[in-house]
Design brief:
Elements: H1 2-12, H2 16-28, H3 35-47, H4 51-63, H5 70-82, H6 86-98, H7 113-125, H8 129-141, H9 148-161, H10 164-176, H11 183-194, H12 201-211, H13 213-223, H14 227-239, H15 243-255, E1 269-273, H16 279-298, E2 306-310, H17 323-333, E3 339-340, E4 347-351, H18 352-368
Parallel strand pairs: 1-2
Antiparallel strand pairs: 2-4, 3-4
Length: 369
């Protein structure tokens, strides 16, 4: 009980490594953990978002002949749910149901709202709409209103299923529940926008503006095909070394058809067309295109005989030097085997053999490092 108390104290203080150290010290001294120790350890690992360690401790507990209680299952469910270990969480949930331990009342314990929230999140990630809705109903019948995390999961689930009216309906529940959209909620709503056909964007754009007026204004500009704004935002991201955000923004531009046919493929040539892009957007597109080439190579897909990058020629409205000049030096820095075609100004070409060799050498360098 002394060790169990120490684990509880460390856990309450957020010192989760301290919990594990006490556990290891117990074993070193030959003191066998009891159920209280195991449950407090699992609770600590759940709050620490350490699902792998929770899994190992649970395996040790079963190996030592202990049977899980409701507290054990609740802690595991918290650990797996927060980390989105959907298969493990659903396995635990099934085990609970098979033993007749209902979520509403289990062994005399009333579960907290996070139990339902975690389950809704897991079902949402798996795209199981009916399970999400039935769990939500069960949660509300148990006396818990959905929080912002639940509404975010609902937005994600309905968005994946293409149920746009339900996305809007879920958004409207924010004001009914007197909740405010946080960064994760607004980001999820923006992600749904990227999966929506242009003719169906109007209602969702209004939600976007209400959730975050400043960001909503930017999205409205993008939806209205203001390519200049998308280019400028890409440049800002690249200048701030936020390449991941620049890639997300370019993906939005592609989804909304702001950028059209910039990565065409046919039997004889794969191309990257950058003439309509700013420098930042063009560099971002090159990064994405090269990642796509790597994925194609890893999957054994056959390259065509030629691969080309079309930057256009002459003065470029987004760059005083012109994209061709910038890309020529950038491709040299990457040691990429693309060379400007003498009879096609603004085109940089390479062969299948040269591209394959270059990509394989880059991959080898990454593995070696």
């Amino acid at each position: 009980m002394t060790f169990a108390t120490l684990i509880r104290i460390y856990g309450a203080a957020g010192n989760f490594d301290g919990c594990l150290n006490v556990y290891e010290e117990m074993k070193a001294l030959g003191v066998k953990p009891n159920m209280t120790v195991y449950n407090r350890l699992l609770d600590a690992m759940g709050r620490a978002r350490r699902p792998s360690q929770a899994k190992n401790i649970y395996a040790e507990m079963l190996g030592n002949g202990f049977q899980p209680s409701w507290s054990t299952y609740a802690s595991l469910f918290r650990a797996y749910g927060r980390a989105r270990y959907s298969e493990d969480a659903l396995k635990i949930y099934k085990e609970v149901k098979d033993k007749g331990l209902e979520l509403s009342v289990a062994s005399g314990c009333q579960p907290e709202s996070w139990t339902y929230s975690s389950l809704i999140t897991i079902y949402s990630c798996s795209g199981k709409v009916s399970e999400v809705e039935s769990t939500l109903n069960e949660m509300m019948e148990a006396g818990f209103d959905p929080n912002i995390f639940v509404l975010t999961s609902l937005i994600q689930c309905y968005g994946k299923a293409g149920w746009r009216d339900d996305v809007v309906r879920t958004f409207d529940r924010l004001s009914d529940l007197r909740l405010s959209a946080d960064e994760q909620f607004t980001g999820c709503l923006l992600n749904v926008l990227t999966q929506t056909a242009k003719e169906n964007l109007h209602k969702l754009t209004i939600c976007r503006e209400r959730a975050n007026p400043k960001l909503g204004y930017v999205v409205k500009l993008l939806v209205d095909e203001k390519k200049a704004y998308c280019n400028c935002l890409s440049d800002i991201c690249v200048n701030l070394n936020q390449l991941e955000r620049a890639c997300e923004l370019l993906d939005v531009g592609l989804t909304l058809n702001i950028y059209k046919d910039i990565m065409p493929q046919n039997a004889t040539q794969w191309s990257l067309h950058l003439k309509s892009l700013s420098l930042g957007a063009a560099l971002t597109a090159l990064h994405i295109w090269m990642n796509d080439l790597n994925k194609a190579l890893e999957s054994g897909e056959e390259f065509p005989s030629l691969l080309g990058i079309n930057t256009g020629h002459g003065k470029h409205k987004y760059s005083e030097k012109g994209l061709a000049g910038v890309f020529e030096s950038h491709l040299k820095e990457l040691n990429a085997p693309f060379h400007e075609a003498p009879d096609h100004a603004g085109w940089f070409l390479t062969t299948k053999v040269a591209a394959t060799s270059w990509l394989e050498s880059r991959r080898a360098q990454v593995v070696a490092s």
